[in-house]
Amino acid sequence: xxxxxxxxxxxxxxxxxxxxxGVLYNTALRLTRASEDAADLVQETFLxxxxxxxxxxxxxxxxxxxxxxxxxxxxxxxxxxxxxxxPIPPDELEERFQRFxxxxxxxxxxxGKTEAWGERWPPEVEAALRALPEAFRAAVxxxxxxxxxxxxxxxxxxxxxxxxxxxxxxxRRLLFxxxxxxxxxxxxxxxxx
Length: 193
What we know:
By secondary structure, the protein is mostly helical. It has 10 helices and no strands. It folds into 2 domains: about 80 residues, RNA polymerase sigma factor, region 2, helix turn helix motif (Rna Polymerase Sigma Factor, Chain: A), CATH 1.10.1740; about 100 residues, Orthogonal Bundle (Arc Repressor Mutant, subunit A). The longest helix is centred in the C-terminal third of the chain and has 25 residues. The relative contact order is 0.10.
């Protein structure tokens, strides 16, 4: 319906997209690790989705369609930033690595910002998720958090289902390893005797 009524298009788009704004923002926040970047990412996702709403097939998974756009925008921004940044000096690379490994002071504040969207996780869980490499983090977010099927998540990430399964397996193992002590302290695992 490329030449349909603009008011009808707006109403259909709002009915599909607006209820998903919170989950899109939470996912964007966990991908970008910064609330301003996440808000920009969601805004651009909504703009692109509205412009191309004629491509959406009613009856298909609107959530997966929006996540596909969100992830595409995220990857394009990341690639553009890498091109513009040029090579990173070794000293700066070492400094970035140290910041990545250590949870920076105030990181818990950023994790708490998701509370407004109804998804508050313990700081240990947020930190472990942020520490995952991007490909593993995205797989875990789309399958385990947003509950997309393997096929839908693979389509969002533009990779074969087997690759998604591999990333998901590795991401889950890394999360398990980094959260074992927290899980014991919280009573999810039995103490090691």
